[in-house]
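Today's session is about reading a structure prediction critically. Students often jump straight to the picture, but the first step is always the sequence itself: look for stretches that repeat, for charged clusters, for runs of hydrophobic residues. Only then move on to the predicted structure, which in these notes is written as discrete structure tokens rather than atom positions. Here is the chain we will use throughout the hour.
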Amino acid sequence: MPVLQSIVHRLEPGSDSDRLVVSAASEVHPESTVMAELVAAISDAYNPKPKGWGAFAEGESASPLAGWLSAYLDAERDFADITRAIAERLAGLLEDRLSVGGYLVFDHSRRGEADSISLALVQQRQGIGIDAEQRAVPAAQLNLGQLTLAARINVSQWRSDSPGAQYVSFLKDRGGKKLAESLVELLGVEESIDAPSETRTLLKAFSDYVEQGDFDETASREKTDALVDYASEQLSRGEPITLDELSALVDEQQPKAFYEHIRHADYGLAAEIPPDKRTLNQFRRFTGRAAGVSISFDSHLLGSSVEYDEARERLIIKTLPSQLRDQLQQRQKGT
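Below is the predicted structure for this chain, in token form.
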């Protein structure tokens, strides 16, 4: 992930403690391995977290940020200049929402074939290190595990002007609701995709597809594994699920089959869906075999199509696979 430009500004409480003050770097950070590692570590911390997705708004909801970024990309303003302006605006929005300071890390990087510009507020914590005399000493560390304010703009997608593209993402954790509101105002973004809801709809579409296809247990498990593996990989890379790519992975013999199923059934899914980690973690299979009985079903069906009676140690299956139902009916007729 080549880092094209990067810079760090500091936010710190003012003397009256009612406002945040920006201590801006005068120039971009020199190219270095350590800075590249920091940008990569922030990206790794950012990718799996819950996020909001959208695009820059127009009209009254617009923010100057899109204009500043355009000026930078068109070589009309430099990176230090526009990030300083962003930091000043963010400091004003966070005055009554952030009681401690931190470092605003900005980077313009190339992720795969796409360029992106990211910002993240990273706070510092005290740790312990060893000095040159091999003595334990206090050592400050950046606390990437507590990342609560960050955003990323897919510049390539934005500048390509693709209809319906969702090229802005930002952290949207439950514990940082007010910070997320400040980010939305800073970015001037119209949120248009609910990642958990979209992921649930995709998984529902997949379950319907497997059920209607009447696949055997092995084929069903292979397709489920293909979906989960691909979605998890996209999540770790901070990239959306692309329906046509997923369709080809789910069924190599009929690479368009799942995609066509989604389109014909009108699930209302966009061509690209940001994966939600919590929702994906719920999409696992329960499997068991004993005394000639083999049972396997997706975990998200528990409580809806499948019920578990813990007291009696029984499973109640509300919807039988059509192939199994036909076999049972034939057996009944034959007796």
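Discussion point for the tutorial: The first strand starts at residue 3 and ends at 13.
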